[in-house]
Amino acid sequence: MPYSYLSHLYCPKTGERYPAGRVQQLSQVGAPLLVAYDLQALKETWKPADLVGREASLWRYHELLPVRDPANVVTLGEGFTPLLPTPRVGQDMGIRDLWMKDEGIIPTGSFKARGAAVGVSRALELGVSRLAMPTNGNAGAAWALYAARAGIEATIVMPQDAPLITRNEVYACGARLFLVDGLISDAGKQVAQAVAEEGLFDASTLKEPYRIEGKKTMGLEIAEQFGWRLPDVILYPTGGGVGLIGIHKAFKELRELGWIAAGRPLPRLVAVQASGCAPIVKAWEARAKESEFWPDSQTVAFGINVPKPLGDFLVLEALYESEGCALAIEDAELLKEQRRVAELEGAFVCPEGAAVFAAARRLRENGWIKDNERVVALNTGAGIKYPDTLTADAPLLQPGERLPR
Ligand SMILES: *Cc1c(COP(=O)(O)O)cnc(C)c1O
Prior knowledge:
Elements: E1 6-10, E2 17-18, E3 34-37, H1 39-45, E4 83-85, H2 87-93, E5 97-102, H3 112-125, E6 130-134, H4 138-150, E7 153-159, H5 164-172, E8 176-180, H6 184-198, E9 201-202, H7 211-225, E10 233-237, H8 242-257, E11 268-274, H9 279-285, H10 312-321, E12 325-329, H11 331-345, H12 351-365, E13 374-379
Parallel strand pairs: 5-13, 6-7, 6-9, 7-8, 10-11, 10-13, 11-12
Antiparallel strand pairs: 1-2, 1-3, 4-5
Helix pairs in contact: 3-4, 3-7, 4-5, 7-8, 11-12
The structure holds pyridoxal-5'-phosphate.
């Protein structure tokens, strides 16, 4: 059996096929390329029971991933994160069957590790030696670290006010690091220029085809962890929307493989954004096919500060197809929710993950989530990566002073 059933790439706008055996970026019409597998052949030979005893990482699904030779796998042990019941916060918001897929314990502290592991492995396999990307922080940190492990040179450009911790991660692993006195869109232009001039591989979000495949594994894991019965609703903090596109793709592939019931509807996907940057919500409310650039975007949940996602049409398509929805949460509300989740469940989720819990609360309140539904909230990173979003208020004692009652 081959390690991967990778078949080819295709443009979701025109349907045109592209060979997967060499380095590819965007399609001819400027759309992200998607990865296709030989699902017919795979269906004959691969069954859920084959997963028993495999390593607890995303590579347990290697048949449905693009790396052809296991020797090219670059891993720090990412994936197969816990799917935890969160009954106390669930009871607090009136959702009896609420779960958290917790990406907070993954290498690099955010689920960007999934996309980086698969993206960097495949880049290595295709002979890439130098890559570049603009970032708001977590993606740059993950790609720089995995590139370091692969022996690939990484050039990372991030806004000056991207979180310090991600800057330090990139610095620690010796990548070429540049700060820009501007936004991620400015960093993007600088990367594009360097790519053109220096012949670097462009690893910007969705400008290479394989990051989606890494993030897709969250969908595969949710399916496996629930015994191949999918939940009713999955809430996802949406910036570029890579994970949302990936999760939806995963479910469609599993359905083709016959691993999940063909007759049942797929989970309703919810794109959760911050009120200070909500282009997908605005487009979804207008039933539009694409989003519009969101000017002066701002939020403490920096991972979802993406004013014009390249894959917006794919995100919206996944929302319409799954009969999901999109909604925006105020920063103050998500910060409140972050403390509530920590208090009730002992989980210090990242601000993006907190937004998802706040959204679940709101959707239960307005009846969009029904009483008996199984709901999964994706926590995409560790709260400890964001040391400045909370200010702890505590009395200062002198040595020997008695604790006030
Ligand atoms: C990047 C990021 C997101 C958004 O992910 P997309 O797939 O780009 O929508 C959410 N949460 C965190 C912590 C992130 O770093």
